[in-house]
Amino acid sequence: GEVVAIAPAQPDHRILVVDDLPDNLQLLSELLSSVGFSIRQARNGAEAVSIWQQWQPHLIWMDLLMPVMDGYDALKRIRALEASRQKQERTIVVALTASVLMEKKNEILAFGFDAYMVKPYEISEIWATLRQHLGVAFVYETPGTAERGQSGGLTAARPMFAEEASASPNDEALFNGLSEVWLRDLFEAANALKGKRVQRLIDQLPEEAADTARRLRQWADAYQFERICERVRPYL
Torsion-angle region of residue 43: left (phi > 0), alpha (psi -120 to 50) or beta? Predict the structure, then answer.
């Protein structure tokens, strides 16, 4: 099932998202705040260091390539500040990188990052990283959540997921007759979490595909990009 919320009775986790590209910054921030994390944003490493000093985030998603101060220099500065302050809790810092070379990964970890994620990243990787490094427990959507309002004894969060709890029977025919080029573009945009691009592609649909457009908008508005990928995959 998809993550709908942070499970109850857990400490509040402060998360800082650092990226110079507004799209990336917005998407990751909105996804995380939609399930209940406290979020701040920074556009470069220098901003990140100053927010770290005032706000003490538990985890930072840190883009590596940025103007003013890059992710490496920002991490070096944060680790030095941590070392100079006694009893300072160590912040988990995850590198966001477009590079997938193995030696690059080892370099990133050796430099002092706790983990890395390669762009475009999968939503499931984001949750897995938070579980592993912060021990966050999540509430997952289960079929029938909407009718019962319960998920394994936990109330499922936010009504925007309610009608999404189960696929509607006519979902199977949603993409019949649509161009394969368009479907491939949609799959790639959803897989890369490019919300604005997904919305632009939905806007291109003709009048007769109004049902498909409405369904896709519901999923995109609820950040259910994994679900869009699942539905489109059989057509590719």
Answer: alpha
